[in-house]
Specification:
This protein is mostly helical and 248 residues long. Helix content is 91%, strand content 0%. Among the domains are: 18-118; 192-247. It is built from 3 helices and no strands. It is rod-shaped and about 215 Å long. 0% of the residues are buried.
Length: 248
C-alpha cells in the first residue's frame, strides 16, 4: 500500500487559547475583588474616624460637605470600578466570542482537511485493493496451471507405471502358465507311466491269479473257491476303474 501524508497548512497568526484567556480573566477578577476587599475596611475606618473626630474639629456643614465629597468620591470610584469591570467583561466576552469563532473556523478547516485526506486515503486503498486482487488472481491462475501440469505429468507417469506393471504381470502370468502347463504335462506323463506300470502289474497279477485259480479250480472245483475267484476279479476290476479315474 502506498504511503500518504497530509500537507501542512500555512501558518496562521498565533491566537491565545480560550483556556488561557479565561484564566487571565479570572486572575483579573480576583485582583478586582481583592482590591475591593481591601478598600472596604479602609473606607469604613475613614468613615468611623471622620464620624468620631470631625464633630470636634469641624462644623456640621463642613462634615456634611465632607460627607458629600467623600460620598461623591466613593460613588465615582465605584462607577470607575464598575466601568472597568464592564469593560473587562465586554473584552472577555469579545475574546471568548472571537475564540469560539476561531475554534469553529479551525474545526471546520480541520474537518475539511480530514475529509479530503480520508477521500485520498480511500482512493489509495481502493487502488491498492484492486492491484492486490489482480495479483492474487494472477497467482491463483499460475498456481492452477502449475497444478494442472503436475496432475497431467503424474497421470502420465501413473499410466506408464500401470502399463509397465500390466506388461510385467502378463509376462509373469505367461511364464507361470507355461511352468504350470509343463508341470501338469510332466505330472500327466508320470501318472500315465505309473498307471501303465500299474495296469501291467495288475494284468500280470490277474493273469497269475487266473492261472492259479484255474489250477485250483481244476483241482478243487467247489462253490466257495468260485466265489473267491469272483471276489478277486471284482477287486481287480475296481482297481482298474480307480486307475482310469485318476488318469482322467
Amino acid at each position: 500500500m502506498a504511503d500518504f501524508y497530509i500537507e501542512p497548512t500555512v501558518s496562521e497568526p498565533y491566537v491565545l487559547p480560550m483556556e488561557d484567556r479565561v484564566a487571565r480573566l479570572e486572575d483579573d477578577m480576583r485582583d478586582v475583588k481583592s482590591l475591593l476587599s481591601r478598600l472596604e475596611p479602609m473606607i469604613i475606618r475613614i468613615d468611623a474616624t471622620l464620624t468620631s473626630t470631625l464633630p470636634h474639629l469641624a462644623t456640621k456643614a463642613e462634615m456634611a460637605e465632607m460627607r458629600v465629597e467623600l460620598h461623591n468620591e466613593i460613588s465615582g470610584f465605584r462607577s470607575e470600578v464598575q466601568t472597568d469591570i464592564a469593560k473587562l467583561q465586554s473584552g472577555v466576552q469579545g475574546d471568548i466570542s472571537k475564540l469560539q469563532s476561531d475554534v469553529q473556523s479551525n474545526i471546520s478547516k480541520l474537518r475539511s482537511e480530514v475529509q479530503s485526506d480520508i477521500a485520498v486515503l480511500r482512493s489509495e486503498v481502493k487502488d491498492d485493493i484492486a492491484a492486490l486482487r489482480s495479483e492474487v488472481k494472477d497467482d491463483i491462475a499460475g498456481l492452477r496451471s502449475e497444478v494442472k501440469d503436475e496432475i497431467a505429468g503424474l497421470r502420465s507417469e501413473v499410466k506408464d507405471d500401470i502399463a509397465e506393471l500390466r506388461s510385467e504381470v502378463k509376462d509373469d502370468i505367461a511364464t507361470l502358465r507355461f511352468e504350470v502347463k509343463g508341470d501338469i504335462t510332466g505330472l500327466r506323463f508320470d501318472v500315465t507311466k505309473d498307471m501303465s506300470g500299474l495296469r501291467l502289474d495288475v494284468n500280470k497279477d490277474i493273469a497269475g491269479l487266473r492261472s492259479e485259480m484255474n489250477q485250483k479250480l481244476a483241482e478243487l472245483p467247489t462253490k466257495t473257491y468260485l466265489w473267491g475267484i469272483l471276489g478277486v476279479l471284482i477287486t481287480a476290476y475296481g482297481a482298474g476303474l480307480a486307475a482310469l479315474g485318476i488318469l482322467k
